[in-house]
Fold these 3 entries.
Entry 1:
Amino acid sequence: MKLFVTGGAGYIGSHFIADALSEGHEVIAVDNLITSHIQTIERIKQVAGIDFAFYELDICDEQGLRKILEQNQIDAVVHFAALKSVPESISNPLKYYKNNLTGSMVLFGLMKTLKIHNIIFSSSASVYGSSHKSPIKEDFLLKPISPYAQTKVITENILRDMTSSIKEFKALNLRYFNPVGCHDSLLLGESPAIESTNLFPVICSVASGEKECLSIFGKDYDTHDGTPVRDYIHISDLVSGHLSALNWFKNDKKISSINLGTGQGYSVLDIVNQFNSFLDHPIKFELSPRRYGDPGIIYADNSLANEELQWKCSKSLQDMCHDSWNWYSRD
Ligand code: NAD
């Protein structure tokens, strides 16, 4: 397929393009590099051994985007471009609404005008909020609690309305749980633009000595060891979900929202112990009180992804921890 990828220099976009090229798809990618680096584009080409067209462009730039889309007969859009920090979206909501919603509106408007009818949208488990009992199913009520999550719900709703109003338009919202790990080559991985508060990067920074200690928020949850449980998914499994999703456009459905998670939850202490099993020194941690609004357990029901996308995860927790550390500690 000829794929148009937004946010192609980012963490997930770069891994997707490398694997999509290797599978024989043609890729045209854009990114304004607001949270990523131009070097990633060369690395994608190196990993895949295949060239592709890349444009440094903000997707809010309608004229620029139109020029690229008009020149190509696109089969499907894979829309990764967005800002993604939940804390930053709370302190600066307008930045998130402006970038994530304007970018999507411009892109979707051009898709309508130019009759590009298939889109995969990067949504997020954050659309469910924090009050549901896991496993989380796709038909649960959406209760976003941050501006970031709101932008995902609003974009999903816009896509739903477009599938109702344009006969041929098809949209697939993929709701990611917590992607971790890196490419086998160690050429691609996550390099957050602002310091990440996510568990894996924080554990790696403690392991490397950059941070003194990991704070674990909550030791009295109703989980096997009292610490919070989440669903982590290896980046290569997440990407293979997208590649399977490209076949979804051949079915009769107009729109679906599908969880991409392993369906298995791990506690913070499970992850710490897994890292400790191969690190020279154990991870220092302190048990702190719960953070307001943090639920005890969140993991996906991924049966819809298994059925509709014929997709399964293959990486273990060990792979996720090893690869995250190998990426973090690379030369
Ligand atoms: P990332 O920050 O690494 O990549 C996003 C890319 O989009 C960056 O390269 C950035 O420069 C680009 N971008 C942002 N706004 C743009 C604009 N207006 N025009 C052009 N390019 C723009 O993030 P990621 O982890 O690769 O996430 C990709 C998508 O997946 C995002 O939509 C994110 O919300 C979603 N998602 C990510 C996670 C996660 O934990 N990584 C979880 C759930 C959902």
Entry 2:
Amino acid sequence: MAQLWGGRFTKDTDRNVYLFNASIDYDKRLYAEDIRGSIVHAQMLKKQGIISDSELADISNGLSAILKQLEEGTLKITDEYEDIHSFVEANLTRMVGEAGKKLHTGRSRNDQVALDMKLYVGSALKTIDSELKEFQKILLRVMEENIETYMPGFTHLQKAQPVTLAHHLGAYFEMFKRDRQRLADCYERASSCPLGAGALAGTTYPLDREYVATELGFDGPTLNSMDSVSDRDHVIEMLSALSIIMMHLSRFSEEVIIWNSNEYGFVEIDDSFSTGSSIMPQKKNPDIAELVRGKTGRVYGHLMAMLTTMKGLPLAYNKDMQEDKEGTFDAVDTVKECITMFRQMVDTMKFRKDVMAKSAMIGFTNATDAADYLVRKGVAFRDAHGIIGRLVLCCIEKNKSIEEMSLDELKEISEKFENDIYDAVSLKACVERRNTVGAPGIKAMKEVIEVYRRYLEGQEPSVYTRI
Ligand code: ARG
């Protein structure tokens, strides 16, 4: 047990208290962020004349060596230290001696950990964004291949109107677009650097906070030292954006599960992404989609835990805030893995176009179009709705679809029906006539796909500029 703060104490910490208090088990993941922040802090101390040239050289060589040894595995992080900050400082002093003891001048673990988490959140946002972008590329590929793949669109999980597979998947493309905006938004709001806030009230040393902020890629320093050390909004915002991503993935999962069921058979998940049953030999289960749906609860849980942890905390730093890490790391790992698995599952999935089209043909998905046909013949929509309702009832009795009814049978329902009704209610016509912006018609769909293609190739500068 090597602690930074032993001076005031006359007794050693109880072993169990030490372990309960320690965060090294999980904050060890922040070693790279911690070292990066420390190197810039030391450079600034030297620039301001607080440490000497040779002390800076010792500190930065030592910190770089620690980073290298950790990455090579020659230095191990053990629970001998309370947290990653203590670990780095103790090892630095062991390696370079006196200069190491000066690193913490003008700094507290409170602003240090706030910086580490902000840097971590920044790189996590960037990673999740690029995972989503890869997924969008796959979605766009499948969309381009399925502009004319007809399928039933549903409301209340009841067949409603015919759409295309491209159109259906485009809905998810839109969701992931919004998700990516949310991530970028969170990144931009987390653009000020807390280092230099000290424990809570700044410091008496002449620190150059602008320099540190710029060197670390932030827009500038935070403007209130108490807020700096007690703000975890960026963690909560990220967890919230991640929760929404999981909600989208969970809805998509649910559809894949339904589509893959024996009754629907719209898709076939590749063998490499399915699992079997230990007892029922015929089974091919959509476990990946189910797990993604299931893990959604876990990510929501981390958001709720963090909101609850922060609720009612007085300013400024409180140890409660150490609880920000495990859930956040787990949420980021979980979402990253879910997007990767789901994306690969979609990439290898077979879409059974014939089954989808057949399903769109039965179940009266063209009933609205039949009513629109009567409107074009001069019938008021409300009356047309009633007439087609009676027609559907009659079709159900005869076990026929609308297009299977003879013209005589149709005329018994309404004199307005002519031979052109058959073209008007064909699947192709029903979809084709829908060409308003955002609708499934081929022309409208092609325009949207072009917008998506340009969006994915977008040359506009990335917001993710912090390394
Ligand atoms: N391990 C702590 C955390 O993660 C670091 C900050 C500790 N500061 C303190 N005053 N105890 O929040």
Entry 3:
Amino acid sequence: MTRKAFITRRMTFSAGHRLHNDALSAEENRRIYGKCNNVNGHGHNFTVEVTVAGEIDARTGMVFNLRDLKSVMAEIIEDGLDHKNLNLDVPAFQGVIPTAENIASVLWAMLARRLPEGALHEVKLIETENNFVTYRG
Ligand code: NI
């Protein structure tokens, strides 16, 4: 019998970004990204929900120790992204437009490297109350 469960931990961070593609004209960038193309950027209070999936271990009763997930997330999200300008301060976004989709994808790659193979199920990046992205590798 398999007893598969999904566990999720939430973490918030505040960061600035600018949506801009160097390969496009200034006019095209304004057309595509609107206010998010503002030269000096803008900020969000982001929420990230990281879901790890697996079987409930008979010995521990856990899928994955939430304390370990918390510490991996703290290192990647709090130390790596909180109070940063994503375009300028975070090496992972060099050459990557920091849209919500790309932030979720970059977070997935960072988390996947630190978690047991195949454990990561979903990264949800909530940018505003009404806009969020779900990324599943
Ligand atoms: Ni934005």
